[in-house]
Amino acid sequence: MTTTTRPNPATDGHKVGARACVDDFFSDLSAAANGGMKVRERYAVLGRVLRLAVDQRLEGVKVCFAGLYPKIQYLVRECRIRENSKDRTLVQAINDTRNRLRHIETTGDAELEAAFAGDLKAVCKFVSVVYGGAPVPKELERHYERETFRTYRRRLKDAEPRRAADRHSCQARWPCLQGRA
Hints:
Elements (H helix, E strand, L loop, with lengths): L17 H17 L4 H19 L10 H11 L2 H4 L5 H13 L6 H22 L7 H4 L14 H18 L8
């Protein structure tokens, strides 16, 4: 009886194993960040690395996912990124990157160029966390944007303390609402 093994599309003939794949992902990202590529070519590499990293990490999972968003959300829950990550904005940053990749045809080159450093940082940190805390190479870290000035829309649960304070100040000003909580 002979067995055949199909080649793993995520490795593209490179080294085998999770650690080797992480090194390949980071080397591809480094080539995109350092090379003289156009911004759309850099985003093509960024998107390919993100999809391959997510697909490779989910290899063997028997759940069917409809797209990249549910795959990322599954990995966020499985790896407990919200609880364990030092960077609290990683989940929202990786979803911003995924959304930008999804709408790349309608996004201008200037906007892509301005967002590339943040998206590179999001993908590098996400790959690092999902693959067990693999260290991001220093050559990639120097391409990160130094500070993030993104403003995220407020979520309902973030606004809860403010709503309670507004309600109490409203009750203080309007005596007819004194008995309501």
